[in-house]
Amino acid sequence: MKNELFTVLILLLVSNLLALAVLLWMPVIRGEKAFFGVRVSRETYLGEGRRILRRYWLCLLAAFFALEAIGFLTAYYRRNFAFALAANFASYFVAFALYANFAREVRPFRVLSEATKFATPLQTRRLADYTHPLLEALVLLLTIAPTVVLIYYYPALPERVPVHWGLNGQPDRWTRKSFSTVFFLPVLMTYLQSWFLLLKYDLVHAKMTLPAEQAEIYLKFKEQLIVSSLRMMDWVRGLLAALLGIVSMLILLTTIEPLRHLLPVANFLIWPCVGLLLFISFYFIYRFMAINNRLEEATGNSNVMRESEAERWTSGGLFYYNPDDPALIVEKRDGLGYTYNFAGKGIKLRLAFLALVPLLVLWALMDL
Predict the structure, then answer these.
(1) pTM of the predicted structure, to 2 decimals
(2) In Å, how far from its chain's centre is CA 99?
(3) Closest CA to 136 of 187, 201, 182
(4) Cα separation of 30 and 54, whole Å?
(5) Which residue among 67, 160, 308, 325 is buried most deeply as judged by most CB within 10 Å?
(6) Band of the pLDDT at 325, cuts 50, 70, 90?
(7) 94, 108, 105: which is closest to 23 by C-alpha?
(8) Is 13 helix (H, G, I), strand (E, B) or coil?
(9) CA-to-CA distance for 116 and 265, rounded, in angstroms?
């Protein structure tokens, strides 16, 4: 138990350090073009901006390591990693609060957009134009097949089933057989695929803001961003379906004698799926930045917005709330990716959908 706890804490620490690196990088990901979510002059970025950034980094590092140290030490001595998870959530909350606070310091230095006239693309995008039937069929198969197999073998499962496997691929925690312990991952997989389809539909209808003077050039590159975002989502959908499908099968491969010879194969396949997920994430982040850079080279600016809309961004460009904007999903303030208009029509349904995540986790934990 002690070695397992130590392993979990180390993995959690590594993931937290990666998150910290992202939080440190977030204000300067696009330099003065989106410094804490707003465009500032080069002089401000290299002068007062540097001083604000150093204070943000110092406060963030101090708060992050203090909370993480308390959480990890408590988790280790109490033999319960829940303390580390609690510290993890607390550190993220503090980090975003710090980001929003320092963003307010930067806001007075923002440079207003030079564009005064805007165009709207006339072409209507449809989900069918960005969907490949074979891909959808494959994702559907990978989502449904594990559920069908688990239903078939459910009566043959023993009264106690494994729910956790060590890094060596062998089970190290068992619990009583129940619907939640056996079918949690297929239910989660169905939920995630439903969410991704809804998000894909929203992305297809994302709003584009095009300066009238260079509308054609902007439209070309922004369409590339849309296509890249949807391709990334399709890759993630497929790999997640494969990964969760394999993991959900581990219960059968561990406990059903005729299937045990497949356990090493399943354990081996998990790591390529994880590696590909990470590679795809980094690749498309690089691609988004490359498209933005090419757009900026062609136009001198990679992201513009109406001044009335710029005022509706809060917390350093993290949230967009504009009841006057009919769009549900819009480009982020820094031009990398998209976000929801939290005053848009249909946002309540999306938020309710996201609220199911902690309920699903609680449902799974009840039988562990």
Answers:
(1) 0.78
(2) 18
(3) 201
(4) 17
(5) 67
(6) confident
(7) 94
(8) helix
(9) 60
